UniProtKB/TrEMBL annotation:
Phylogenetic classification of the source organism: Bacteria, Pseudomonadati, Candidatus Kryptoniota, Candidatus Kryptobacter
Gene designation per UniProt: dnaX
Entry-linked InterPro entries: AAA+_ATPase, ClpA/B, DNA_pol3_clamp-load_cplx_C, DNA_pol_III_gamma-3, DNA_pol_III_sug/sutau_N, DNA_Rep/Repair_Clamp_Loader, HLD_clamp_pol_III_gamma_tau, P-loop_NTPase
Function (record text): DNA polymerase III is a complex, multichain enzyme responsible for most of the replicative synthesis in bacteria. This DNA polymerase also exhibits 3' to 5' exonuclease activity.
E.C. number: 2.7.7.7
Keywords linked to the UniProt accession: ATP-binding, DNA replication, DNA-directed DNA polymerase, Metal-binding, Nucleotide-binding, Nucleotidyltransferase, Transferase, Zinc
UniProt GO BP: DNA-templated DNA replication
Family: Belongs to the DnaX/STICHEL family.
Protein name: DNA polymerase III subunit gamma/tau
Amino acid sequence: MSYLVTARKWRPSRFSEVVGQEHVTATLLNSLRLGRVAHAYIFAGPRGVGKTTVARILAKAINCLNPQNYEPCNECEMCVEISNGRSIDVLEIDGASNRGIDEVRDLRESVRYTPTKAKYKVYIIDEVHMLTKEAFNALLKTLEEPPPHILFIFATTEPHRVPSTILSRCQRFDFRRIEIQKIIERLKLIAQQDKIQIDDDSLFTIAKKANGSLRDAMSIFDQIVSFCGEKIKFDDVIKALNIIDQEIFFRVTDVVKEKNIKAGLEIVDEIVKLGYDFQDFLSGLSEHLRNLLVAITTKSAELIEATEYYKTRYINEAKNFNESDIIRMLKIVNDAEISIKWAPQPRLKLEMVITQLASLDSTIKIQELLSKLEKIEKSLNSSGGVDTENFNHPPKGGNETENSTIITEKSTKPKPSSKSEVSSLQHDDIEKINALFKDPLAKYEIKPHQDSEQKIDNPEKILNLVRERWDEIVNKAQNYNLNLSTALRLSYPLEIKENKLNIGTANDLHLDWIKKNRPFLKAKLKEICNIDIEIDTSICDVEKLKEEIFQYSPDLKLKKLINESPFVKALIENLGARPID
Ligand SMILES: [Zn+2]
């Protein structure tokens, strides 16, 4: 059995059969009912979620000779021709291989003629973002004055690469990743029909591996069937897909609990012997820790994607850890996920990670430390005369050897205590506490400049500050002017030269937009960064620039991480986690 068999056999032929995209199919059916079908649609969304399938159903529905409740009948001449890809009026074009202006010119030529047989000529252009700029321009002319008998359906996995001039002339639908539960239901149905025995754990594993794509799920399902035959067992699924067994991650957290480094090194040995990819292992471990964190903070397994059996395991395991511990572990694992790529000896790196995890001190010790701080602060305040502000922001060069990297504020509430214990606070402890309180932004305190003509002192600091808050500036621009915000998003502060902030942009168009809006930008720089500075622009390789900057600046890298990962963002904003050198 080949993968095409299941995917083709189960390809929906009516709107009502499409899985997980009800928000799209219901709206389309409604437009058909009201006779308000648009001239151009754009279907955006990840691969394998039904974009071209829905496009074909729509092509059939508007051309069907005998529609049933606005669904295609799938039996009339038109429906059959379209289903078999034989209709000369319904054309499917692959944007990736027909991306040039010549192809689009041909298309514009053919658009002029009325359909031969069907009511509508339908052009389905897949991966439309692959078209060249010239091809888009040619297409735009047709979209500006569409002939009445034409329907364009564009499908794309990357809508942000489609010019806004095209987007604004299309009705847009965003297709979603399909929920695991819906994929499982569909696979169950297929298994029943094909008389294949499969257990829930296997179904779950396949659905999860498919990552929201029903097409991928079916293809994996076919792969498993050809590997296992008609009786599918969970162990075989794990083997066939080379998936790392969840158990191994629970064993890692056992190692941490028991501080058993030897057992940890044995796990690494096992991973090597089983031929698992180290990075897969680390990202699996990351997800495992994330699940634990969810179980600890929400006290439920509702937000955990796992089988019932493992959901219960997470709830039980959560009792052994507190959230600060998990966040510190996550930090270690996430760092390793990045650095193991370039590690000359990846195995050694992995062993170090496991050893580090197994020798983590519990957060409780830091809590003790903080309660000591509370005591000393109280006693000093009552004796009249300590500057807590300076205490919280020590001069640079303090002891920065603190082991933990991220800590949550929630769990570190100082506890009240008696005065007699104050003397037990050692100098070393104070240094550690100072490191805990260190505000990463404190080093960028900048006073406003009175005169913009004045020489900018410490340009490096200012440049860093602007880079750090660049996203905020971009977001402000979004409400002001969409073109400007797009230009800014694809640009980045390059340098401070001759007392001007030089913004690196990717092309002339962006450069123009930024130049035109210099007063706005100046105002925002003043508002957000509290600096007065003139603005200059130049063209450069922005992506490369960013890459180089992030490599050398941990603070900016963290900002980038926060922007890119909702999870890191939640850790920092909701749980109060913060980096400490
Ligand atoms: Zn029909």
